[in-house]
Amino acid sequence: MRLRPSSQYLLVGLFAVAVLAGCNRAKTDQANQAKTPSTASDKADASGAQTAALTITTTSVSSEQLVRTIPATGSIYPWQEVIIGAEVGGYRVAEVLVDVGTHVKKDQPLVKLSSDLLEADLASRRAAMRSAQANESNAAAALKRGQSVVKSGALSAADLDKLNAEQVAAQAQVDTATTDVATSELRLRYATVRAPDAGTVTSRTVSVGQIAQAGSEMLRMLRQDRIEWRAEVPESQLALIKAGQSVEVTAADGSVLKGRVRTVAPTIQTINRTGLVYVDITGGTARAGMFARGQIAAGSGPGLLVPVASVVVQDGYSYVFVLKGKSTVERRRVQQAGVHGDSLEIADGLVAGDVVAVKGAGFLKDGDTVAVASEVAAK
Q1: Is the pTM higher than 0.90?
Q2: CA 44: distance to chain centroid?
Q3: Which range is most confident: 94-98, 158-162, 341-345?
Q4: What is the pLDDT of residue 374?
Q5: CA dihedral 187, 190, 191, 192 (to 10 degrees)
Q6: pLDDT tens, position by position, 109-161
């Protein structure tokens, strides 16, 4: 029996479809076989990832006797800066005896004004005083003579009263003239501007030849060469600071200065919520205007210390990671109380005996699984 050409083509097509279906099934089986061990490996890897942990070091929190300090920053100022000027005006500056940086003693001459007019005025006042004294002497003698003859009737009571009045007036003129002389002598002394106290000249605005004006600034002086550090301390810590506490100040050039709290400002600066602590600085080479950092001693007592590396700052708060069990950490918020070398004092959030992460703490999250490499004793 012979098939038609169309039937032959149909059989060939069915055969080709069967062959292709067999090939696809084989490829699918091979793919499934290849995929099965890979999936198992992936599961093993995932399981391994779950068991793998970040290796950290830890330390135990212990309670120690601490000398507490309060850190602060601020600038160095003169204790008192004295503005020096002439007490008489309208006279020419004849001589300037000091310059910036000159150390002076109390009452040392600083500036001299031209004294010719003042000396002439003093001489005139003295002459007027001598004339008044002469008039007073004549009036006193006339009164004495009148008193001696009044009983004889040669002088009336009215004339005697007149002599008394003249003598009183003459005495008043003497008093006025004496006062004028004292005033002129004082003005002449003021022609020499003197140091009101010991110290160092910090500014000079006067020059020879200018006309001095009473009260105008000529010089500035750092009184007694005393400087002070005005530390800005947060209002929450001001209650811990008292007059007399010792202070260690580090200037911008690295020099370390010793000081003592003189007083604490009674008000708070509303802009930054800090109060000023005035610290007298003794010795050293600090200069007014320098910026400085310092530590104010605030007593002693037991406290908890942790390494600086164990504290992580996140979102503006301080945290440590406490080891729970053998391989899990718990993030715990703490409150810092001060710095002690390479350690931080913790005021709240930990108790003695807690074990905290040190190395690797910055990479941890709450509830992470960890592997502890070693435990370092707390310093």
Answers
A1: no
A2: 61
A3: 94-98
A4: 55
A5: 150
A6: 999 999 999 999 999 999 999 999 999 999 888 888 888 877 777 777 787 78
Contact 346, 63 (CB under 8 A): no
The CA distance from 348 to 305, in Å, is 11
Phi/psi at 110 (5° precision): -115, -45
What is the C-alpha separation between 355 and 59, in angstroms, rounded? 6
Q: What is the DSSP string of 96-143?
A: E---TT-EE-TT-EEEEE--HHHHHHHHHHHHHHHHHHHHHHHHHHHH
The SS3 call for residue 377 is coil
Tokens of 139: 């009036």
Sign of CA dihedral 347, 349, 351, 353: negative
What is the mean pLDDT of the segment spanning 170-198?
94
- Helices 116-149 and 157-190: crossing angle in degrees, nearest 10, is 160
Helix, coil or strand: residue 35 = helix
- Cα torsion at 169, 173, 179, 182 (round to 10°)? -150
Mean pLDDT of 266-294: 90
Give dist(CA 201, CA 222) in Å, integer.
6
DSSP label at residue 187? H
Site of tokens 């602060």: 72
In sign, the C-alpha dihedral spanning 220, 224, 227, 230 is negative
277 CB-side CA count, 13 A:
34
Distance, CA of 91 to CA of 191 (rounded, Å): 8
**Over residues 31-44, mean pLDDT:** 42
Residue with tokens 């060469």: 225
Alpha-carbon dihedral sign for residues 111, 77, 291, 272: negative
94-121: average pLDDT: 95
**Is 1 a residue whose pLDDT tops 70?**
no
- Nearest to 321, CA basis, from 63, 62, 56, 64: 56
Q: What are phi and psi of 293, to 5 degrees?
A: -115, 155
